[in-house]
Design goal:
- Helix content is about 35%, strand content about 30%.
- It has about 210 residues and is α/β, with parallel strands linked by helices.
- The protein has one domain: Rossmann fold, CATH 3.40.50.2020.
- The strands form three sheets. Strands 1, 4, 5, 6, 7, 8, 9 and 10 form an eight-stranded mixed sheet that branches.
- Strand 2 and strand 3 form a beta hairpin.
- The structure holds 1-O-pyrophosphono-5-O-phosphono-alpha-D-ribofuranose.
- The site of 1-O-pyrophosphono-5-O-phosphono-alpha-D-ribofuranose (PRP) has 25 residues, from strand 4, strand 5, strand 8, helix 5 and helix 7.
Length: about 210
């Protein structure tokens, strides 16, 4: 399934600000929200539509609306919360789910500490949000949780992807399209994306 780097000058500009070492937590959070809105727009650009009759103040016309209810938004904690804020500004009525995952710093294996998903998931599909796709362990587990809850149409949006994570997602969940603001070079020995933007969760919440 396709991996796309979203082509948008504003997205690239904001990502550069996110990457900079000197960008402080409050600015980082705001930028992550803005990037979340831009990624959501791109990831959902081809949602099915249908035509309905409406009247403008001047004339009757056929106009497009979404054919199905808005997809659910699902944030991978913690850093996905930053993207979620922007995604919710685009889809204010979407039900929201949370998957809590944390990576062991040595093994780099993600373990789940929380799962709350909306019951509408099977009917609506989901946009899964996490700024970082590094080894892919977190994303792969999160997709599994959504599948087990009955979601069929799942899309994944991230800010920075590493080649390892993209390959792993494409191997394990080939039907899930990935939308990223950038594809970076590689992972370092600690499983961080290079050049990347550091630890998104810590930078977002000031915990480093
Ligand atoms: C980071 C990041 C992703 C995950 C990516 O989260 O926000 O969720 O690692 O790595 P992976 O692709 O190798 O699984 P972390 O575990 O640091 O938790 P946090 O968001 O709470 O800081």
């Amino acid at each position: 399934m396709p991996f796309s780097v979203v082509d948008h000058a504003l997205l690239r500009h904001k990502l550069t600000q996110l990457r900079r070492r000197e960008t402080e937590s409050a600015t980082f959070r705001r930028l992550l929200g803005e990037v979340g809105a831009l990624l959501t727009m791109a990831a959902l650009a081809d949602l099915p539509e249908r035509q309905i009759p409406i009247e403008t103040p001047l004339a009757a016309m056929q106009a497009p609306v979404l054919a199905q209810p808005e997809p659910c938004l699902v944030a991978i904690l913690r850093a996905g919360l930053g993207l979620l804020e922007g995604a919710m500004s685009i889809l204010p009525e979407a039900p929201v789910g949370h998957v809590g995952l944390v990576r062991d710093e040595t093994t780099l294996t993600a373990s789940r500490y929380m799962l709350r998903l909306p019951p509408e998931l099977p009917a609506r599909g989901a946009l899964l949000l996490d700024p970082m796709l590094a080894t892919g362990g977190s994303a792969v587990q999160a997709v599994r949780a959504l599948r087990e809850a009955g979601a069929r149409d799942i899309r994944f949006a991230c800010v920075v992807a590493g080649p390892e994570g993209v390959a792993r997602m494409q191997r394990e969940w080939p039907e899930v399209p990935i939308f990223a603001a950038a594809l970076d070079e590689r992972l370092n020995e600690h499983g961080f994306i290079l050049p990347g933007l550091g630890d998104a969760g810590d930078r977002c919440f000031g915990t480093e």
